[in-house]
Amino acid sequence: MAELFQFELVSPERQLLSEQVVEVIVPGTEGEFGVLKNHSPFMSTIKPGLLKVRKDGGVVEEYFVRGGFADVAPSGLTVLAEQAVRVADLDRAALAQQIRDAEEDLKDAKDDASRLKISDLLSQLNEVQNALIPA
Amino acid sequence: MPSLKDLRNRIASVKATQKITKAMQMVAAAKLRRAQEAAEAARPYAERMGEVLANLAVAFDGRDDAPKLMSGTGNDQVHLLVVATAERGLCGGFNSNIAKLARDKARSLIADGKTVKIVCVGKKGYDAIKRELGSYVIKNVDLRSVKTLGFADANAIAEDILAMYAAGEFDVCTLFYSRFQSVIAQIPTAQQLIPADLPKAEAGAEVSASAVYEYEPSEAEILEDLLPRNISVQIFRALLENAASEQGARMSAMDNATRNAGDMIDKLTISYNRQRQAQITTELIEIISGAEAL
């Protein structure tokens, strides 16, 4: 019997998810990490990517998240994402649009620092798109 | 004394007005519900954000290397006022109350010898402010084409403000909006955005909890990432509160207008009936005296 903990996924517009889950895999800026019950207090920013939620009974749900942070507290895990969409509802055209926007930004970028930042974002977005194509 | 025909026309026109104000009130009521739901849905995010920031800020309190968005630039010579109002009128004192608060603030700042810059969000606020302070308005954000307010809209405004801050164009940023309390009470509010006005977490229990926190990347980097995001969130929340307030204000304004129109119709109907009766009486007297003369 897997132990459950409280997980909340919140975007600025609304609260997407608030329930007891078994495991959550979060795309952290410095690498993906999984959270189980009784994880030590931890905080990380997140990169654009797929967030996987394993619920009681083994059902896995995937969300596309972009920008924000994850906060692991003794009371549970909270992910605050600037953008969060269930993968099933994700509009591929919108994602493609985001990639195109990022490509344009890359062309307009003035200095190396911002160019680096945008190319990072671009590669992360592309990664997400590639992960979604077979699905 | 207006003629019977005039009175009839007048009653018809007031009735038409009453129908419109009544419809507007019902539309506002429906929109208010939606706006309120949106404001409530956005609350958890803003609250969590505030908690986390407060926790992080404790670690940086009073340190020299604290991010500029938190500690400020060190002086307060140039003030940026962001005035968020509605795009439409006919909502009572809603727009003018916000504009008035912002104008008073701008006036007192100018009197103190500070430099003032104004960014208007929403057409009505711009209209109210440009008469007196038009030369200070540097930007006017138009949200008329926006049907449902999204986070992206707030983000765009926040990015503009942050770019100006990074370019050193102002030292202190204050946001003006109307806090939604109830349908009849909306409170015009001024909120300082930059430097961030963070609630101090209580010492003791919470600090010790954050002491064992692990951060990835470092605390400083997270804080640097969060502060600009917090600006977007604050603006988003303000815009949502504003939207709810606007509908609330319009609802009560239109309710009043409908009631006034009702009163007016009653009065006009009474004088119409009186005049009609007077006319009938006159005609009767004419007929009777004509018959008696024969």
Automatic annotation (TrEMBL), chain A:
Subcellular location, record wording: Cell membrane; Endomembrane system
CDD domains on file: F1-ATPase_delta (cd12152)
Keywords, ordered alphabetically: ATP synthesis, Cell membrane, CF(1), Coiled coil, Hydrogen ion transport, Ion transport, Membrane, Transport
Designated name of the protein: ATP synthase epsilon chain
Keyword Ribosomal protein included in the entry's annotation: no
Quaternary structure, from the entry: F-type ATPases have 2 components, CF(1) - the catalytic core - and CF(0) - the membrane proton channel. CF(1) has five subunits: alpha(3), beta(3), gamma(1), delta(1), epsilon(1). CF(0) has three main subunits: a, b and c.
Signal peptide range: none
Coiled coil: 85-119
Functional description taken from the UniProt entry: Produces ATP from ADP in the presence of a proton gradient across the membrane.
Positions of the ATP synthase F1 complex delta/epsilon subunit N-terminal domain: 5-84
Chief subcellular location: membrane
Membrane topology summary: Peripheral membrane protein
UniProtKB/TrEMBL annotation, chain B:
Subunit and interaction comment: F-type ATPases have 2 components, CF(1) - the catalytic core - and CF(0) - the membrane proton channel. CF(1) has five subunits: alpha(3), beta(3), gamma(1), delta(1), epsilon(1). CF(0) has three main subunits: a, b and c.
Keyword line: ATP synthesis, Cell membrane, CF(1), Hydrogen ion transport, Ion transport, Membrane, Transport
Taxonomic lineage: Bacteria, Pseudomonadati, Pseudomonadota, Alphaproteobacteria, Hyphomicrobiales
Gene that encodes the chain: atpG
InterPro entries the UniProt entry points to: ATP_synth_F1_ATPase_gsu, ATP_synth_F1_gsu, ATP_synth_F1_gsu_CS
Subcellular location: Cell membrane; Membrane
Similarity comment text for this entry: Belongs to the ATPase gamma chain family.
A family per Pfam: ATP-synt
Keyword check for Signal: no
Species of origin: Roseibium aestuarii
Protein name (record): ATP synthase gamma chain
